[in-house]
Amino acid sequence: MSTPIPLPRPTAVVYCDHHFGGIDGKTANGLVRHSETYEVLSVIDSGQAGHDAGTLLDGRANGIPVVASLQEALDLEVARTGTRPDAMIIGVAPSSGLLDAASRTVLLAAIAAGLDLVNGLHEFLNDDPEFAGAAIANEVEIRDIRRPRATKDLRMFTGRIEEVTCPVIAVLGTDGAIGKRTTATILVDALRDAGIHAVMVSTGQTGLIQGARFGIALDAIPAQFGIGEMEGVVLDAFRSASPDVIIVEGQGALSHPGPRR
User: What positions does the domain D-glutamate N-acetyltransferase-like C-terminal occupy (predicted)?
Assistant: First the structure.
């Protein structure tokens, strides 16, 4: 029986101006290191243009250039393949979860150039009249990664988590943007290399954009449904993938000061 040929991944430019390699650039950082869904062509950061993204992040070149502008990213792909990229991914993840005016201008220009927009922010761009209108006019799609399902479809805790018989390991940390997702990804890869069938459950926007098969944007789920949604996605992973172990990307921080006040 022949092995099926995998379909080519959509191509994408990652927008991360002035933040690549920093805390607020964590989505771009993650995509440069690992992406199953998209083939990352370039990263936009005018302050670090001309460098290799892998060299900037980890000291190892990976062939993904950092460019100064959207136009440079478009010209680079036209020169390489004769076509434009398929999508623009918002690679910044500011603590506010909102776009600034300069970013809006670049993203609207990407839509005008015919690129789909992948948005992991708390600000849902399909609800923004300017972005929604531009998407319709240019026949492109905006994906709001953090948008939860309708409230009527969210899950409450049932206790059926007891049906999961494999180990479930949560990767936790002492702060946000400290490397929980990156550590979980490396751990899953190492377990698989050792012959252990490991599955990752992602709980943030970056993991979902990277292509996590199982996951939710936990910080966008109303608190009443958070534990039920987590139970549900772990059950989904156990039933669908029959793993030896499930690795859960943690959220938040063990040392959060709020509960101590």
Answer: 156-259
